[in-house]
Amino acid sequence: MVAMIGAARRQRYIDYDQHPQPNAILLLGLNEMINMKAGKFLLFLLCVIAISNTVICEAPPTCPADLDGGCGSDDSGEWEGEFFTGIPKIVYEGPKSKNPLAYKWYNANEEILGKSMKDWMRFSVAFWHTFRGTGGDPFGAATKMWPWEDGTNSLAMAKRRMRANFEFLEKLGVDRWCFHDRDIAPDGKTLEESNANLDEIVALAKELQGTKIRPLWGTAQLFLHPRYMHGGATSPEIGVYAYAAAQVKKAIEVTHYLGGENYVFWGGREGYQTLLNTDMERELDHMARFFEAAVAYKKKIGFKGTLLIEPKPQEPTKHQYDWDAATAANFLRKYGLIGEFKLNIECNHATLSGHSCHHELETARINGLLGNVDANTGDPQIGWDTDQFLMDINEATLVMLSVIRNGGLAPGGFNFDAKLRRESTDVEDLFIAHIAGMDTLARGLRNAAKLIEDGSLEKLVRKRYQSFDSELGAEIEAGKADFDMLEKKAMEWGEPKVPSGKQELAEMLFQSAM
């Protein structure tokens, strides 16, 4: 029996032998008890407990970014040292470089098709993903706790994040950033308190920006707080509508104050779960009135930035009113707002709407509405908005073809509305992800330039439509060919001969530039 019990005990603690734990060392003392004097054993035991407590119970430092042990030079809690120690300023080293902290394809000042890469790209870092992303998802808790975080959402912590943001931008060599109001400053108990918090953080951001850095765009977070469960501009409760208007008013003001070049409306909850309890027409009318008021206020304060609508088909609502680029364009035309807004196209949202990013960009472009790109992608095997960094060279090339045809994006640009994977938890991963995303789009730009300079693909497309380069084709495209004229030609020509679409050749030509 004794032998059986001993065997069971050994089996129970087998994991401790394979994977030593701090308290496992206590078990070693049991074997020594018989042979050791009581005093020696007690001394041994006390030492073991002290070591164990040191390993297990020591509280983590609140600001490891300060390697000297403090968070700042005064009692304010602000850390003014270096956050990303050991990370150099990222430079271009060329395609042969094996350095993960260097650009291989993005050479900021290199000229492509008459414009520098920096001007084609106009890269921006998204504050909410880079500095507020936790790694949490619907099935798991946060996995990220950056060294400068203290676990709070205090004003002191918000200031520390803002300083980290600008050090990150400087080292990455990017001079634009994007933000939601509630991501950069804590929500207060009242609207007045929230505004005061935002003012304090924005004042610091203005100081840290200097003259070279500015927001690509700002926006208001009208989706997280419970008050917005039914939407903001489309909420059936007038108090929520008014609160959302006040929040947007303030967000436009601070974006203007910081020199922002655009302002984005993302209707995260502007939609419905069921039409049984929804007056869709009234909600759409309310949203139009909301946008009209935003246009009027923008002009009142002299904000010259572009107002952007960001289409998204679903998640979290069953149906959102800005489903895709075509839906948003139709909305703007219906309410006479087509000249006041452009679109911020997000590639992952395009996927969720059943389109490619290229399709959404082209739809926005041909409607004169392409204003900005949220550079990310989704996983085709996952049905939600995963916000991954774009790494697909083919997709990046198609994106850049649209951007080139658009003549660029200014005053918009490419915002990295993308986040690290849940399992990526090193500080350097923040840099690696952005470097890879920037290199991917830069490589896409180079490939798109090759395609345009070669001209073979464009020639193939022109050839497909060459029958319209005729006198009748010109009349059709000018709206001067009626059905009588077309019927006469159809009878004269007889059965038409339909040429090959040459899709495989088009794909071959495209791949030749990769």
TrEMBL record:
The keyword Metal-binding applies. PROSITE patterns: XYLOSE_ISOMERASE (PS51415). It is an enzyme of class 5 (isomerase). The keyword Metal-binding applies. GO terms for biological process: D-xylose metabolic process. It catalyses: alpha-D-xylose = alpha-D-xylulofuranose. One of its GO terms (molecular function) is metal ion binding. Its EC number is 5.3.1.5. Keywords: Carbohydrate metabolism, Isomerase, Metal-binding, Xylose metabolism. HAMAP family: Xylose_isom_A. Belongs to the xylose isomerase family. This is Xylose isomerase. It comes from Cynara cardunculus var. scolymus.
